[in-house]
Request: fold
Amino acid sequence: MHALDNVIWQALTTRHRGFAEGSGLARRFMREVTSLTAFGSESPEGYAALAELAGVGGTAALFLDGVYRPRGGWDLVAEAPLLQMLWEDGVRRQVRLELDSAPEIVQLGAPDSPEMIELTALTKPGPFGRRTHELGSYLGIRLEGKLVAMAGERLKVPGYTEVSAVCTHPDHTGKGYAQVLMTEIMRGIRERGETPFLHVRRDNERAVALYERLGFRTRVTPHFALLRRT
Reply:
């Protein structure tokens, strides 16, 4: 199995096991960290373990190999086709902003969590919780004291780190902020000897085009499914 196959499960059983809840064939991140959940295999036994972990009325946010097929005891709340993209460009790209002065990049942490949640709720880059920032480095750009763009690290498995929560306030798009922040996050990942990867909705053409310019290429096409245990 490649390190990025069933990547949530691999993160929860390796570099992120300190954030994991559950055992056996199903595990999830602590709820205040993120809603991402996984099982060891997409099988009847895997779903049975997931049902026990979620409990009646509980939810599970999964990355599946294909489209979710209805199963007894589960309701499909939301779904989206994804691309898993892996950085394959060995050329270090220089990013330039067409601005009079480049914005200052700031490190984000616990004091910034409410603003990070507000920005991700507005832009919807993916699940983001009160403690998601603890999973890795998060950087942001502030204008007049307000957080207008951010990017950071989420899933980590041996040799790889996911670039995640790439988002810009709608009033400030088109200025290159996402590209600048991603470049800095990727630089930190590469300096640790790791390879960046990411997940994006297949229909987000603008984001996919940006990621391809930065050297990412599609590796596999997983499917996101948010399920609720009935």
